[in-house]
Structure formats: C-alpha cells, structure tokens
Amino acid sequence: MGRVAGAHNALGAKLAVQAGLDAIWSSGFEISSAHGVPDASILTMTEYLAAAESIAQGVAPVPVIADCDTGYGNSNNVMRMVRLFEAAGVAAVCIEDKCFPKTNSFIDGKQELASVAEFVGKILAAKNAQRTREFAVIARTEALIAGWGVDEALRRADAYVRAGADALLIHDKSRTAEGIREFMQRWTPSVPVIVVPTTYPTLGVAEADALGIKMVIYANQGIRAAARAVSDTWRTIMRDGNSLAVEGEIAPLSVLFDLQGMPAHRAAEQAFDRSGAVPTRAILLHAGDHRDDPTLASLTGSVPLAALDVNGQSLVHRQVEVLRQCGIADITVVAGYRHDAVPASGARLCVSTSWPAGGEVGSLLAAPATPDAADARTLVWYGDVLVERPLIERLLATADPCTVVVDRSDRPVTPGHTTRDFVHVDDEGTASKRFLSPSAPRRVLAIGSGVDAQTANGEFAGLVLVSSSQWPVLRDQAEGMGAAAVPDLLQRALAGGLDITALEVTSGWLELRSFADYELACRLVSS
Questions:
Q1: Annotated catalytic residue: which of 39, 330, 384, 421?
Q2: Of these four, 14, 127, 279, 381, which has the most CB atoms within 10 Å of its CB?
C-alpha cells in the first residue's frame, strides 16, 4: 500500500519523505493555495511545472506524481505537458475528466465532466507523448464527485484503462466512502486504483488495502497543517510582542539547514571549490567511417558521422557546443574518413592519415601530444557518442588520476555488446542490480575486450578523463600498441599500475551505432 503526501514545494515534500511517506503528490490545490489564488485553472501550466520540478529535484529519487488538472487544454496541450513534466523528472502525471476550466472537486455546485471520447483521446495522446517506459499516466474520474454514480464511474474507468491509463484515481467527496467501497467491490482489477480520502478520513490504509486499493494520497493535509501552525505562531508573537513563547514550539534553524542540504553543500564546497577551475582539453575521436553497420552505410557513404544532422545541427557541432558550455576551449577533433567534410567549427581539426588501420589508439596519437595549458587534464570522447551536459559536468568534478564513465543500468551485459566496451567494476557490497554509489568512487578491475561477458557489470560509455600527470604515461603506452581500442589501452595502463575509477551512470548518453540510434537521437535532442 503506497502512502503519498501532497506538497507544493520541495521543503514540504522533504518533510513528508522524512516522515516515511512513499511518494509525493505535487498538489494543484496546494500550489494554487501557495500562490493565493483559487484552485480553478487560474495558474498556468508553467507555474505548476516549476513547482513539480522543484519538488522532484528536492526529493529524488523518491517518485513525484504531478496533479495536472485537465491536462491544461486539449490533446495537443496534453502531449506537450507530458513531455515537459517527464523531462522535469516527474514519475507520473494525473489528469482528470472534467471540462476546462475546472473547479476544485470539494467546491459546492455543478461539476462539468468531459465526454468519455474526449478524455480517451487525452489518454491516448499522453501515452503517445511519453518517452520512457517507467513514466506513468494516471486517469482520474470525477464521476462520483459530479454525482453521476458508481455505474458511470465504472464505465469511464473501463474506457480509460482500455485507452492505456497506467492507473486509476477514483475521486469522491462523500463522508462515508460508500461509493469507493462499491466501486472496488464491482471493479475487476486490471491497473492500480488510487483514492484521496480528504472527506472520508476514517478509510484507513488497512481497509483500503483489503478493498484492493494500491495507493492513498493525503493531498492537502500538509498545507492545512501549515496554515494553522503559521497563523497561531504569528498571533502569539503579535499578542506577546516577542517570539519567546513560540521558540520552543517551532523548528530550530539547524533543522532547516538540514532540509536545505547545507551539510552536503559545505562538504562539496570543501571538496571542489578551488581558486580556479582545473583546465581541461578535449579530444573528439571522429576518424572512423562507421559503415560497418548496414543501416548506417547509406547515411555515411559520402559524409562522415561527424557531419550527420542531428535535429538541425551536426553531431560534432553538438559535441563541441556541450564542451564549450562546460568551460572547455581547447578542443581537438581527430578526423580520418572524409575529413574534408568534418564541420569542426570552433575546434582544432587533426587528420589521422592511418585511420583505417590505426584504430582508436592511432586516432588518439594524431591529436597534439600536449594540451595548450601545461597542467590541463585530457578528456577523450568517442565521436559516435552523444552526451548531455550534466554528465560532462559530473565527470569534470572528479579529481582522480583516471576516470572512465561506466553505464551501470540494470540491463544485462550480453555478448551482443561490442566486447571492447566491457567493464568490470569493483561492486563489493552491492546487493542487486540497483545500487547506491559509495562515498569513494569504485575502482575499475578490468576493461576492454579481455573482460569476460560473465564478469562484466558495466559498459564503457566512451568518455575518459586523465589527469595532467598521468596523460604522458598513458600516451607513451599508446605509442607501441598499434591498432587498438581505447579500453584496451586503459587495460594496459591498469595492468601497469594506473588506478582507474568509474563514474557510474544509468543515463545521459547515447551511442550512434545504427540507423535506429540516429533516429532516436533526432527525436530526443532538442534543437
């Protein structure tokens, strides 16, 4: 039985999580109340989205469900809403079958419901717009609120599930919850059912569980409690002329500092705040022809992968732009196949004359041996990998001699992956495929084609950051390798005593090894 707390900001959400609630409901009523306006479609989607995103960031990885009223318009509005809320880190959205503009369900008077056909269209639009399997669309029926009875609630619920809703929220404002009980007795379970016992608080989690209800949302108790407590506090201060009487009843500043994350902020400040940023140069490996996959051959027959248009900009331009946004100005693009067509604007272009036979290591050696700044680190980035800026920023925040980005998502590492990308990370103490990163980075035990598929527990994501002191050592080892992949060079350095650590990720990157990958990149990357 999931218990969910309503909240209108990250502070209230954190307090609920501390108390042990399982998830957060980004409450439209609470957000409207916090703005001092009626819960009647007065605020815009932008204002609700900003609140939900702040809550999601504040309590991650605890899931956040966004109360999205009627979807802020028609099906087109619903599709945009889903994409924005999903991108903001929200786990699920809930839309209700009222007409826009809506009125809060607990206000007396007539409640206008949308037709079943119209709302089914919204659900179909929402499911079509979502980009990840984990995201959920919750359909909320207001049939009981509108006084249309259990029969209508059942009819609508069945239609919404058939349209693809991942869960149902059955809303009611009776004092007895008899409508909820009858609905659950007559409903054939197919998706989880959610209730909001605002007006029927006697329906506890034990009875809800027995009825087959999977989630209870306490949608507004938090802001109601805060309104009374804050009001009482100010009245006492105004009565006494000082705050002495309330100081023992209100939270000390230390509690707020903890909720703000101040201890972690100070720790990060001590670990990373320096008088000047550590200089870094980047090498983008773009020499290969990428025609080994038949689905890509038609695209790269006359132009290199670097020049492929990814939603309005070339692949290499997007990579260079991310590096510059991260403060890296010393950028080298190593080209080979059709190097004359590589649009390396804003970067130094080097040509690997031996690219067909020299492999990745040969391309690496074609870049300048030393960076422009003597104390700069070197970031090596595969040309066929797109990376989001936050991942690069996380990598640049590390300070180890050599750090590789390793995908630790829970999909199994199978022989279907290119063997050069296998990584074996020391994950002692990890109980399952889900894990928490330790305070100290995990060590890489083995990397490259020599790693057995059975022991591999990660995939090299095409990014490695090497300190200024270790780069000359790594480059010297590359000189005598001949044609080899970068992971095999790293394995050689590892065997020679170099400590390599893993920056563990589960998202934030995409490799372009096939036409399907390219098509996905064009869909996911904004212009």
A1: 39
A2: 381
